[in-house]
Automatic annotation (TrEMBL):
A Pfam family that the UniProt record links to this protein: PhoU_div
Source superkingdom: Bacteria
Species this chain originates from: Schaalia hyovaginalis
InterPro entries assigned: PhoU-like_sf, Put_Phosphate_transp_reg, UPF0111_domain
Parts forming coiled coils: none
Recorded family membership: Belongs to the UPF0111 family.
Name of the protein described by the UniProt record: Phosphate transport protein (TIGR00153 family)
């Protein structure tokens, strides 16, 4: 297919790459929450809100570019879905950070804390893979290793999710804290699923382009 970028702005690929870079920043901030004080967590949450706001702006620019560009590199609905999938990943990372602050999640049993860290590390690896691969989106068929690896990481995330829930229910923590942690663990799992949805969307584009 032919392609032209908007005359006065970045291409779709530039914007997708910017959004993927935001995911790396967001997961790094989320990871830093675990060892932070209550006051530091508020500052980290605020920084992550700024990254999420930047992501919203990029997603709006993608939507505008879809509407303004006469010849697009892929189907319009696929471009819109990619932007939406990237935005979903960022929103869920932001939500997880919010829950740490709102719920006052701190001083957890070692096993629970370790499994939360594992969930966040899986998200960080998904973000790194995405940021490394998205610049190659112009040749989506070359990204097979990317979507295979994201699928593997999501499977690893599923296992960690189940282990984390089990650890929380067996922890002897106050029932209210158990509910709060269950919420957090489920949002982290949704973020992992969102990365897989993104990878699946890229695989779908590759199949169409083949």
């Amino acid at each position: 297919m032919g392609f032209r970028k908007a005359a006065d702005g970045p291409s779709f690929f530039d914007l997708f790459s910017q959004q993927a870079a935001n995911l790396v920043s967001a997961t790094a901030l989320l990871a830093s929450v675990l060892g932070a004080s209550a006051q530091e967590r508020i500052a980290i949450r605020d920084q992550l809100h700024e990254v999420e706001h930047s992501g919203d702006e990029i997603n709006h620019r993608i939507a505008r570019l879809v509407n303004q560009t006469f010849i697009t590199p892929f189907d319009r609905e696929d471009l819109g879905l990619l932007g939406s999938n990237l935005d979903d990943c960022l929103d869920l990372i932001d939500e997880a950070c919010d829950l740490f602050v709102m719920y006052g999640i701190d001083e957890l049993p070692e096993q629970v804390s370790s499994l939360l860290a594992e969930q966040i590390d899986i998200l960080a690896r998904c973000a790194d893979q995405t940021a490394q691969s998205i610049p190659g989106l112009k040749s989506p068929l070359d990204l097979r290793d990317y979507w295979v690896e994201i699928n593997r990481l999501e499977n690893e995330g599923d296992l960690t999710y189940r282990r984390a829930l089990t650890a929380v229910f067996d922890s002897g923590l106050d029932p209210i804290m158990v509910i709060k942690l269950k919420d957090l663990i489920e949002v982290l799992e949704k973020a992992s699923d969102a990365f897989e949805d993104l990878a699946n969307a890229i695989e779908t584009i590759a199949v169409k382009e083949s």
